[in-house]
Amino acid sequence: MEEKKLDINSIIGFVLIFGLIMLMLYQNQPTPEEIAAEKAKQEQVNTQDKEPLSQAQEQVSAATTALNLKDSVAVANYKSNLGAFGFTTPSNKTTKLENDLVYLEISNKGGQIIEARMKQFYTYDSVPIYLVKDGNASFALHFSTSDNRVLNTKDLYFEPFLSKNGENQILSMRAKVANDKYLEYRYEIKPNDYLVDFTIRSQGLNGILNQSKPVQLEWKLKGIRHNKSITYENRYTRLTYSHNDGDIDKLSDSSDDEETEAKVKWLSFRQHFFSSILAKSTNFESAELASVNLVKEENKTDGYTKAYSAIIPLKIQGGELLENLNWYYGPTDAAVLSKYEDLGLEDSIPFGWGIFGWINRYIFTPFYTFLSSTFSSFLSPSLAYGIAIIVMTILVRLAMSPVTYKSYLSQAKMKVLKPEIAELAEKYKDNAMKRQQETMKLNSKAGVNPMSGCIPAFIQMPIFYALFMFFPTSFALRQKSFLWADDLSSYDAIAQLPFTIPFYGDHISLFPILASIAIFFYMMMTTGQNMPQQPGMPNMKFIMYLMPFFMLVFFNNYASGLSLYYFISNLITIGIMLVIKNFIIDNDKIHAQIQENKLKPKKENKFQKKMREMMEQAEAQKSSGKK
């Protein structure tokens, strides 16, 4: 029983790591005022296409909505309301653009994309992945004409012209004023490419467009649900944008948010593993961005996660409009987005912030890609990706083993000094200041730093947080199975509950249970079962049970790959700990080394000297006060 000593540094490490997770979960919770305003904002989202319009816009929109193309009088009235832009004959037809990766459907009305479908990816229930469908998105230009008409391109009819440039398909959508005068949306799609070149330009409209009023580009989209858990998917659904020549910012992932930014290069309406991105090779001068959270609670019926909107002013130069842009409808995958380095689209992936994101982006993502591709070449898909996680876990733990060794070495030194520290505690039991001072002297002479055991916990925090972001957002893990888990990027439910437990969910995941058990046994080995409660210290037995409980509850809805990693990691840590304790660390040698250190003259650094002097002064003042 004597070997089961208090590992307070390990406890501190676990508390710090889990405290970080809890902070992430709760820091963006809505305030009561935000909850009270949610209903009003929800109504605003539901009526997002019904913003106040001028009288002229209302007339045009009403005429367009109710337009019966077979009624010649209605068509004539519609054209009259549009003025010069009534030249194009109304038609409700659509044009298709597609390659092996993406299918796009563009409507004559508005000239906009009304359907964007991934051709190689499906939802958890085998439905094709749609980013645009059933009116969840709109793209339009608001502009004024020289005869004081205020028009919206979603009310205009465009005439399609389909052609080819080599293997590229080109679709020109033209809202005409005359055969040689028009506003054009030009789409060019390449083979095996998610990026679509998109040009907005006018021809011959000098004198027709009102140059005194800016053209406003308005893009709106409601994220379509793709995952079995809408709250889990919504966690990683976010509006991200690049501005000010490389700065990356995001709107809130859990509450309503809005921002106005300058020099915007691209903006991404991310839907977890898939993104709709509008980019410009230079910069938009500014953009008004907004995100509204549509998810209130976990359910199986809601179809949308967030409502995004962007309003971007465009300049008319020389009486004409010209904007060279790009659309991206595709996976939020580093392997794909890294191909568009000139636009910097890879920065839209949520790798994490600071050093955590750096580790995730440049170490874990390429390392796991290498491992998974290697194992998938000779293992079945149901094993390769899980085995890759296990191998990565082993290598990470081995790389961290020197740090683990130093931690256990520090614990062993403290164990050797414990009898002497106990003697000091008894000798100066009535003088806490003196007791602390003598203890510090003892540690200094013996060459022991009581805080050195905390260092491994701090070193491992960036690793853990990077992995915390890696597993739920790595496209390489999406819908990859392992053992009973059918998707390593989502939870591994082995049973459905007939009710929902707050914070836990309506299912039972197995990997978090295994990880919790591993943590429990590790803490049993390090904290012991009969540790006395020390004054001023937390109850170690309570913490020993609390940490596995945190793992069990909060990881139940997280990526099963993360729980698998943590389960294997703790098993390896237990193994390394046993090897170090039983075969590497020699307590007799440590004791001899400490005694040798005591005999050596100890040189104090400035900090140690200052601390000693302060404590001696405090002790002297205390003694003089008693006299």
* Count of helical regions: 15
List segments where confidence is low: pLDDT < 50 over at least 5 consecutive residues.
Answer: 1-13, 23-39, 41-56, 529-537
Proportion in helices: 40-55%
Structural class: alpha+beta
Shape: elongated
C-alpha Rg, in Å?
32 Å
Task: Give the total of beta strands.
Answer: 19
- Average pLDDT taken over every residue: 79
- The biggest beta sheet, please? 13 strands, antiparallel
What is the CA–CA distance across the termini?
46 Å
Taken as a percent bin, the fraction of beta residues is: 25-35%
Could you explain the architecture of this structure?
By secondary structure, this protein is of the alpha+beta class. It has 15 helices and 19 strands. Strands 5, 6, 7, 8, 9, 10, 11, 12, 13, 14, 15, 16 and 17 form a 13-stranded antiparallel sheet that branches. It has a four-stranded antiparallel sheet with strand order 1-2-3-4, with no helix packed on it. It has a two-stranded antiparallel ribbon with strand order 18-19. A hairpin with a 2-residue loop joins strand 7 (159-165) and strand 8. Helix 8 (381-427) crosses helix 13. The two termini are 46 Å apart. Residues 1-13, 23-39, 41-56 and 529-537 have low confidence and may be disordered.
